Structures are given as C-alpha cells and as structure tokens.
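Researcher: Next entry: YitT family protein (Paraburkholderia ginsengiterrae).
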Amino acid sequence: MPGDDVHAPLPAIRHCPYEDAVALVVGALLVSLGVNLYNHAGLMTGGTAGLAFLIHYVSGWAFGPVFLAINVPFHYFAFRRMSRQFRIKTLCATVLVAGFSMLHPRFIHIDRLDAFYAAVLGAAVMATGFVVLFRHHASLGGVHIVALFLQEHHGIRAGKVQMAVDVSIVVASLFVVSPRVLAASLVGALALNLVVTLNHRPGRYVGM
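Model: Predicted structure:
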C-alpha cells in the first residue's frame, strides 16, 4: 500500500574522496584544538596523546613530533591488520593533528583557563573530531587503531576500549600533575569517551 515504505532504510551512500578529505581536515582541526586546550591547562588525556603529553611535560619537547613518534608502532599494526584506505586516512589524520597542534598557539592566546572547564570543553571538541574521523573510516593511530579493529572484527565497542586505556594512563600521570589537574583530567577522559560511545556504534552509521 502507498506509504508502507516510509520507514524503509535508505541505501548506503559511500563518501566520495572530496568528503573524506574535508572530514580529515575538520576532524584533525577539532582534535588538535582540544589538544591545545588540554596543553594550555596542563591536563592529561589517554592513548598516545596522553603518552605524548607526559613526555612533553617532563622533557619540554614539542607535543607534535612526540605524538608522531609514539604512533609509529601502531601504524605498523595498521599496516598489517587494517585496510589500505584506513591506513592512508589514519596516517594523514595523525600528521594533520601534529601539525595543527603546533599552529594553534600562533593564533590563540588564552590568559586564563580553568582546568575543569578546559577538560570538559576540550573533551567535547576532541570527541567530536574523533567521531568525524571514525565515520570516514579513519582514526588518529595509537589505541584508536586497536579499538576500531576490536570493534569491527570482534564486536567490542571502541568507546569502552578507549575509556579503559585512557583512564589508566591518566591515573598513571599522578606523579606528573597535581591532584586537582588529575581530577579534571579524569573528568575529561570520561566526558570524551562518553561522547564517542554514544555517537559511534556498530551499524548506526553506514556512509563509509
């Protein structure tokens, strides 16, 4: 009867190269902005970015190059386990985040930034960037590669895997940051992974 197919699912439309390119830039820009907020407030996060922050705070080395170096083993894992398209997009996104993270301080100057405000706002911005990248079959290397691999091949939610790793790394930073900053970082880690978990589920988005 007429109208019976009103709620029928629409056929999946694959992203074209132009859409993927724009998504990589936008996603990386958002993530790097969140990274800049975290860096300015002296916060911690999880994954390879968290390890890069630890090294950055202790040694003073720039976040971008350290972030790239830490991701090398994970990109090797992606080369062995993931598709060629995913590997290329992830490598591009990782390089873009590292580059943008060094550009933001040239254009943004913040006089005062509360740690908890930076944690929540930075987490929301980074999570949005992650979802954009995930929905275009890309990630930022590191734990994201392993989390997506487990989700796609074993049905384990990427957000839950990322949350477990992130919280562990943030707690391990107790000897680097103050208790208040650590508390704010934990709030940020939970907020970031909650947004990713709620917005990135298997079968919810089929535009890839």
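Model: Note for the record: The chain has one domain: 17-199.
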